[in-house]
Specification:
- By secondary structure, this protein is α/β, with parallel strands linked by helices.
- It has 7 helices and 8 strands; from the N terminus they run αβαββββααβαβαβα.
- The longest helix is centred in the middle third of the chain and has 23 residues.
């Protein structure tokens, strides 16, 4: 399975989530930035409201593409304890990285929300969307932070994911939909022909477009 781009992946993922279509008690939350085009298509196809849920990966200093964990709102921090221990990463280094990423997290929340309040998820079903699951740390941080907002249930949904990560997350959420779980999984990007970066402006534009598409049954 190879997706053309994140929009193509979102349409495919939406086909696996038809049971949630047109439900007034359900909302789609996408992880920026790459999860937003996927979430946009899911929300559009299912006639559901769309918002973002910002998380930030914690990169290993000097090797930032290698994740040692992730943070989310309300001080949530999820760490790869095995990596931290094996690499001998001091606590003060982790704290400094978390503080820097928290500033970026807050900036993005302000930038994407543009002064509007976030969607109220209390008592609602939340479909938490990203463009894929590799290590799963960002998604785990999002789930932990989202639990504090007391949704009725959390459904993690991704177009593609590492089989082991999808299996591990299954016990941490109410439902999980990993549309494709290839055995030869190395990275999320390998399953997209176009995996170019999503910009802040792209995120803002997609949120505006999603709001304009919303119907009375999706509020």
């Amino acid at each position: 399975m190879l997706f053309q781009d994140r929009f193509d992946a979102g349409r495919f993922l939406a086909s696996k989530l038809r049971r949630f279509a047109n439900r007034s008690d359900t909302v789609v939350l996408a992880l920026p930035r790459g999860g937003v085009p996927v979430g946009f298509e899911v929300a559009k196809e299912l006639n559901l409201p769309l918002d973002v849920f910002v998380v930030r990966k914690l990169g290993v200093p000097g090797y930032e593409e290698l994740a040692m964990g992730a943070i989310a709102s309300d001080g949530i921090c999820v760490l790869d304890e095995d990596l931290v221990r094996t690499a001998g990463i001091p606590r003060e280094v982790i704290d400094a990285a978390a503080a820097e990423e928290e500033r970026e997290l807050e900036r993005r929340e302000r930038d994407y929300c543009q002064g509007r309040p976030p969607v109220d998820v209390r008592g609602r079903t939340v479909i938490l969307v990203d463009d894929g699951l590799a290590t799963g740390f960002s998604m785990r941080a999002a789930v932990l932070a989202l639990r504090r907002k007391r949704p009725a249930q959390i459904v993690v949904a991704v177009p593609v994911g590492a089989p082991a990560t999808c299996a591990e997350l299954e016990s941490e959420v109410d439902q999980i939909v990993c549309a494709v779980t290839p055995k030869a999984f190395r990275s999320v990007g390998q399953w997209y022909r176009d995996f170019s970066q999503t910009s802040d402006e792209d995120v803002r534009d997609l949120l505006r477009r999603a709001a304009s598409l919303a119907t009375p049954s999706a509020v």
